[in-house]
Amino acid sequence: MSRQLHINVNILNAGVFGGSWRFQGTDGLASFTIEHYTSIAKKAEAAKLDAVFLADGPVVDPNIRYRPNNNLEPTTVLARIAAQTEQIGLIGTLSSSYNDPVELARRLGDLDYLSGGRLGWNVVTTAGAAAARNFGRPAEPDHALRYRRAAAFTEQVVAQWDARAGFASPQGRPVVVQAGGSSDGRRLASRVGEVIFSADQDIDHARAFRTEIRSGAVHFGRRPEDIVLLPGLSTVLGSTEEEARRRREILDEVLPDAYARRRLSGQLGISLDGLSDAAPIPAELLVEPDEAGGSQTFYRVVKAIIDQENPTLAQLLRKLSGGGGHRIVVGTPEQIADDMERWFRYGAADGFNVMPDVLPSGFDDVADQLIPELQRRGLFRREYEATTLRGLLGLRAPAQAAVPHEAVPLEAAR
Amino acid sequence: MSRAIILELAVGSDLSAPEAADVVAAARDAGVSAIRLLDGGAGQVLDPNTVASYLAARLADVHWIVDAPTTHNAPYNLARRTLALDRATGGRSGLVLRAGEGDEVSAATVPDPSASGRSQRWAEYAEVLTRLWESFPAAALLGDQAAGLLAEDSLIRGIAHEGSFYRVSGPLDGPSSPQGRPVLAAADMDQLDWASVAGAADVVVVNRAQAPAAQGALADALGRTGRKRAEIALVGRVAVTAAEASADNVAAELDEWATSMGLDGLELRPPDGRAGALTVAHNVLPRLQSSAGASLRAALGLPELTGART
Lengths: 414, 310
Known about the structure:
The structure holds two protein chains of two kinds.
Chain A lengths: L5 E5 L23 H13 L4 E4 L19 H11 L4 E7 L5 H14 L4 E6 L4 H5 L9 H20 L12 E4 L4 H10 L2 E4 L4 H17 L8 E10 L3 H13 L3 H12 L27 H14 L3 H8 L6 E5 L1 H14 L4 E6 L4 H16 L12 H4 L22
Parallel strand pairs in A: 1-2, 1-9, 2-3, 3-4, 4-5, 5-6, 6-7, 7-8, 7-9
Chain B lengths: L3 E6 L7 H13 L4 E4 L10 H9 L7 E6 L5 H14 L4 E6 L5 H4 L10 H16 L7 E4 L4 E3 L9 E2 L4 E2 L14 E4 L7 H5 L4 E5 L3 H13 L9 E7 L2 H5 L3 H12 L3 E5 L3 H12 L11 H4 L11
Parallel strand pairs in B: 1-2, 1-12, 2-3, 3-4, 4-9, 9-10, 10-11, 11-12
Antiparallel strand pairs in B: 5-6, 7-8
Helix pairs in contact in B: 1-10, 3-5
């Protein structure tokens, strides 16, 4: 059988757009209930998706006044989804900075076992001072140190999985997912990542990124095909082009005004106070991505848009739409399928982490319209061909881990 | 009189998750007030919070009390998991905070490196949990779509905890539980002093040897906290052997013992394995008068919370 797309749904609370929770016909508080997540997961399984994906950070979103945040601890949600589904993969985001590796390895391993080998762990280092303060730190640890710890932490967790005596994993071990787009993050991805959840606006850049990660894997003694690259893709679907465009306009109209600026300000780590909507952000305010703190991935994406398009602040806010920098596609199921097929065949993606504009309605459109279109093209499975997440992703059973590196505490450089 | 009747289980190598689901269903049908999920260590027992969330998806209306130690758990993480389970179960969950040591993340920035003592750690940890569970009141969620106001964030407040063992800013990421807060239980009275426990616990579990002195010790300790005796459920934990579980008079004996000790509840430890646990569920539980209620708090006979503790 020819190669096919891998597709996850990112159940990002009410949807990726800042105004998703206000979209017509949406229960604005549904994403604070567990049923929101389990019902989308059941629908995703019926659509034969590879996995559900839960983003997370151990912190309340500073913009909670204007939009929902991720507000339910992922392993607790995934355990519930595991009980109510049979085959779909379960990917949860858990911080390498703010978890104890002994506890995390045990809990994830147990969830993997309970779910029949369907678990993936998205390793994040967790940006921001607010999260750091929940764990006794006055500020976020240095970016490079966070990533050094992430590498050692991940290897430590993997080694514990491989050493498990009881409750062995039906898939060999849980799948390691990684999302960092920074230089440090790319190194980590090549070294330990099996699924890479990337953020990219440009197909050529995405292809170069995929090539870099795959050859990086070879450098670490792995094979290129040991990595599945899934860029984030925000979808705005309509049954006609006009309907999709109108949906996109409504999402801009319902974006809470105060939110978009605050969100962008937080992502760039600079104040936007006093800046005019009608002019571009002054270049002197923007440092090079590797020097930025916080999330370098999103800094990089936003900086690239600014460098290439020089938009006014208002245009930039509209382009991002409170969505945070993942690529937004607007169109009919055929048009979006065309786009996905182009990225796939060009070598820019092995599939996508789909981030519907509004949940659940935007995912209903994905499951009911987009997936059948991809199936008609032979680009997506009609039936599950494996019982584990590793199997669905076409990843081979892992070799035994190398001897783990020594633990790297977050305070090593202080 | 009715009492909180708790059945304890350790799900893992001796009792698989599907077997546990059978036992829990039988216990529920026999009117059990709550299921306590013990931890017996990695490789022997599956992570109790994960098991509770998994089983709760298939067994609605059951109440869960889940063990987790201070060891290897930063308070913010444990607060989140417990509250997530409690919200997912509609206010039917709680935590037995087991006495222990610290975790790798918190230890690196411990405010007072000389701080020691399991009881002291437990008390501080319990205070952090309680305050975090109250830090994002559900009433702060507005969902006002017309005005574009999702939440009244002035009601969501950090806890700025600065103690000897932990420094935690808060607030928690999600809204408070339908029962106010998850139920917090203590169960290591060989390691914890009564003063620490009386200030924070909703439930105290004692064993047979500890039971005779428990009532007096709790009353003494409560006198110094300002809390009322009715705010705490004192639960006696007893092992029920296979022979006892089959005897007709075991329930009456347990009831008599609980009355003589002034206990508000009983926690039954069944024999290992599915068959033994099912015997307890079928033969013992129906003969005990179990308290019941929609929330775990109510099911344990605890009063409703009337505002924040902290």
